[in-house]
Design goal:
By secondary structure, this protein is α+β, with helices and mostly antiparallel strands. It has one domain. The chain has helices at 7-22, 58-65, 124-131, 169-174; strands spanning 31-42, 45-55, 70-81, 88-102, 107-112, 118-121, 133-141, 150-159, 185-189. The longest helix is centred in the N-terminal third of the chain and has 16 residues, at 7-22.
């Protein structure tokens, strides 16, 4: 047993305990991480390539395994940087994916909701790995940009809790296990 005799240390102990109690479960263990993000200009269109690591919490995995479909959203914004005025959002777009477990068939299904393209996987890890590979996503056409202006692209991904079945929505609003999202990844667009 540790006994602190210092007055400062004794006063810090309750603060440390409160901070530890307030932290959400499994900090750092669950969530989404954008690892590689790159925008390339091919002819007159900028395309986005991204690699996302999806780590699901135990509650989300359990719901998925019990047949609850999950919707993931990849969001991108193109912002014009201005010196004297507020920055201008030139374009905001998103891509949505559906992940579900087919209990009777015992496989995972990933659906690109914009194109309707479907893929099937035996394991959750393979489904999440494929879901995390974003290739040649057309973001913006060159004619939407003003020459010699500075632009940046912001990208993030998140679990859309509003798309969950109605009985799960109240739980997802108050549980940190369902708040899965990456930070915004920001970089300059070379135009």
């Amino acid at each position: 047993m540790v006994v602190w005799t210092s007055g400062k240390a004794a006063r810090l102990l309750p603060i440390i305990l409160i901070l530890c109690w307030c932290l959400p479960e499994g900090v750092g263990a669950n969530g989404f991480q954008l690892n590689i993000v790159d925008a390339q200009r091919i002819e007159d269109v900028y395309y986005l390539d991204a690699e996302v690591d999806y780590v699901l919490s135990a509650d989300v995995r359990e719901a998925l395994f019990n047949g609850v479909p999950l919707e993931f959203e990849l969001e991108a914004e193109v912002i014009r940087l201005r010196r004297w005025l507020w920055n201008e959002t030139v374009l905001a777009t998103s891509r949505r994916y559906l992940l579900r477990y087919r209990v009777l068939a015992k496989h995972y299904q990933v659906v690109d909701l914009s194109s309707g393209e479907k893929a099937y996987f035996k394991t959750l890890s393979r489904a999440l790995q494929t879901l995390g590979q974003v290739k040649r996503w057309p973001i913006i056409q060159v004619d939407q940009l003003v020459h010699k202006e500075l632009y940046q692209i912001k990208v993030r991904c998140r679990l859309d809790v509003d798309a969950l079945p109605l009985p799960l929505q109240p739980t997802s609003l108050f549980s940190s296990a369902w708040k899965l999202a990456s930070d915004w990844s920001v970089w300059r667009l070379n135009y």
